[in-house]
Design goal:
8 helices; Rossmann fold; disordered N terminus; 8 strands; alpha+beta; two-stranded antiparallel ribbon; four-stranded antiparallel beta sheet; 2 domains
């Protein structure tokens, strides 16, 4: 923070939060001529749960999707400002977007398991990255399912189709699939909105344990 000609500059994210994993600086986002985000400043510390709270339509999901560039898929979308993950500008033209989406995982509002076995759902990201050693896959699948509080419920039916799981189990499976590639950041867009209270409690416990 600095002072010039009697005016005090607003503190930057790094002034407020030491070594944030995610930094958003004066971010504005437009869909065509419509502005959806206005000069957002945000810092997210490591190993913390940060919640975006606000009324429907205020831009929470838009901001969340800006953190791993999913808004790139909207043809009319454009941004002003900066977003950094681990200090790197993710909107730099030379930034590898595929690598970004490995480093910044996403769990969506509606669970989206693949029509594959429970095992292959969790192993999918590792296989895409070229990892096919069974011992490594086995270890990662178990570790990720345990982290998502699902292992004890599915350990004896890993070859069953994931579409047969309950809604809450499917959402925890999606969390496990995200965790399997060991992202630095996990984004969750209202992951409990379509779940019953018991499933919601389990997801919330999982989120708390991930810290």
């Amino acid at each position: 923070m600095s002072e010039k000609r009697g005016e005090i500059d607003e503190p930057s994210v790094s002034d407020v939060i030491e070594n944030p994993i995610v930094e958003v600086d004066k971010l504005s986002l437009y869909y065509g001529d419509t502005q959806a985000l206005y000069d957002v400043d945000l810092g997210v510390p490591e190993r913390e749960v940060t919640a975006f709270i606000g009324p429907s339509g205020c831009g929470k999901s838009t901001l969340l999707r800006s953190l791993n560039r999913l808004n790139d898929l909207v043809e009319s979308a454009r941004i002003e400002g900066n977003v950094r993950v681990s200090g790197a500008d993710i909107y730099d033209p030379n930034y590898d977007v595929i690598d970004l989406r490995r480093r910044v995982g996403m769990v969506f509002q509606k669970s989206n398991p693949f029509p594959k076995s429970i095992y292959e759902n969790v192993a999918y990201g590792l296989r895409i990255a070229g990892e096919n050693r069974r011992s490594i896959l086995n270890e990662s699948v178990e570790k990720s399912l345990r982290a998502a509080a699902l292992w004890d419920e599915v350990k004896d039916r890993l070859e069953d189709n994931a579409m047969g799981l309950s809604g809450g189990q499917q959402q925890r499976l999606c969390i496990a699939r995200t965790l399997a590639v060991e992202p630095e950041v996990v984004l969750m867009d209202e992951p409990c909105s379509a779940l019953d209270p018991i499933a919601t409690v389990r997801i919330e416990e999982t989120i708390s344990e991930l810290k």
